[in-house]
Amino acid sequence: MNPTSPSPDAAAVMLKSPASCTDEELSAFESALQAAGEAASQPLLERIRRAECLAFVRGANGEMEAVGALKCPKLEHRTALFRRASAQVPPEPFTMELGWLAGNEKAMPLIVAALVEHAGERPVFVIAGTAETTLQTLLAQQGFRTGSPVYASSHGAYSNQIYVRGN
Fold first, then answer.
1. 10 Å Cβ neighbour count for 26?
2. pLDDT in tens, 37-53
3. Which residues contact 34 (CB under 8 A, 6 or more apart)?
4. Which of 8, 29, 51, 57 is within CB 3.0–4.6 Å of 107 for a Cys-Cys bond?
């Protein structure tokens, strides 16, 4: 996956539940996240299988261009995260997290729009790094608003902000 090359042929987003994915699709999704630097305390594939919806964009050659997901984080995780971020909204309604966005940036508007459409009216949150200005613009276009002040990430020397949609 090349995050900088243009992808004129990647025009369709495929949305699938993890249960309906093939082993190859799950492996490709996991590989895309690992290539983007995703690290987790528990096995990544286990977390991928708990997601509500996975999004895939493939190029004309069949290669994975970009991925994303609607994750289903546990309440304990959301509560700790929203508390650490001094969120201005309670975590309980936000049962879905739009995340694991990785790959070709040109495909991200397609993935974000498809996942937001899939979520419908259900409340969704996103953690965005303060340096991710393109993502912040996409989120604003999809009706997200800030849900927390800027806070220090627990995963590196950068800052994040929670964005929320709905509720």
1. 16
2. 876 656 888 999 999 99
3. 44
4. 57
Query: Residues near 164 by Cβ (< 8 Å), separated by ≥ 6?
Result: 89, 94, 123, 124, 125, 126, 144, 145, 146, 147
> H-helix or E-strand containing 33?
helix 23-35
Residues of the chain with pLDDT > 90, as a percent, come to: 74
DSSP 63-88: -EEEEEEEE---HHHHHHHHHHTT-S
Question: Which residues have CB under 8 Å from 133's CB, separation 6+?
Answer: none
Chain segment 74-105, per-residue pLDDT in tens:
999 999 999 999 999 999 999 999 999 999 99
Q: What is the CA radius of gyration of the chain?
A: 15
Look at residues 134, 117, 135 and name the one whose alpha carbon lies nearest to residue 126.
Answer: 135
Phi, psi dihedral angles at 130 (to 5 degrees): -65, -20
CATH class of 13-165: alpha beta
Tokens read off for 139: 């989120």
Domain ranges in the chain? Answer: 13-165
Number of Cβ atoms within 10 Å of the Cβ of 162: 27
